[in-house]
Amino acid sequence: MRPLARALAGHDVVVPTLPGWIGNPTDRPALDLVELGETLEPHLPGAIVANSMGCQIAVELAIRRPELVESLVLVGPTVDPHTRPLLRLGVRLLSDWPREPPSLWWIITRDYAAMGLRRFARTARFAYRHHIEQRLPLVAQPTLIVRGRRDAFVSQRWCEQGAALLPDGRLTVVPGAHAAHYSHPSAVAQEVEQHLRER
After folding, report:
1. CB 6 within 8 A of CB 192
2. Residues with Cβ < 8 Å from 92, sequence gap 6 or more?
3. Higher pLDDT, 100 or 26
4. Calpha distance 94→17 (Å, rounded)
5. Which domains does the chain have, with CATH numbers?
6. N or C: which end of the chain has fewer CB within 10 A?
7. How far apart are the first and last CA of the chain?
């Protein structure tokens, strides 16, 4: 998230590291999505910008603690219901990998290695079992969904459906793939700033 944070330098931006990821080691077992959201509460109130599984965490936090979350920006929200079952999801994830900058491969590999196989598997299970499509209608905050045009992991079809499920949602498409906030931070920052101005 740091490239996007730098592109949003005119704002008061915090880039927290969730427990269990590199830079924030913990002896606690892997946290579920609600518990991960609770670790963000000290940084709020404010808007939340999230990517991938982070979108699921942000949605749960927005539903549970609406007084803390002013608005949401969801970049490539998972899990795309059209990628189920698990085998299809894995194929889509592998298809997206070559579309991301090689520098991101190293960051992801390093972070997941630091998590350890057990924590990674349990966290991934929490994300896979979460049905964000059932939760989006409960989000009261203004929400922008951002999709990278070449995202092989999260489909255009799903992002359109996700925006329609939100009481106050809209979709925009930017250059890049699943991690558009990393590969094209200026384009995503421009959309974030417009969303904040409008809302």
Report:
1. no
2. 80, 83, 152, 153
3. 100
4. 25
5. 2-198 (3.40.50.1820)
6. C
7. 22
Q: Is the dihedral of CA 36, 193, 75, 109 positive or negative?
A: negative
Alpha-carbon gap, residue 119 to 15, rounded angstroms? 21
Question: What is the C-alpha separation between 101 and 176, in angstroms, rounded?
Answer: 10
Percent of the chain, pLDDT > 70? 98
Q: What is the pLDDT of residue 25?
A: 65
Report yes or no on whether pTM surpasses 0.85. Answer: yes
pLDDT in tens, 119-142: 888 998 999 999 999 999 999 999
Q: Identify the CA nearest to 58 among candidates 161, 162, 185.
A: 162
Residues with Cβ within 8 Å of residue 194, at least 6 apart in sequence: none
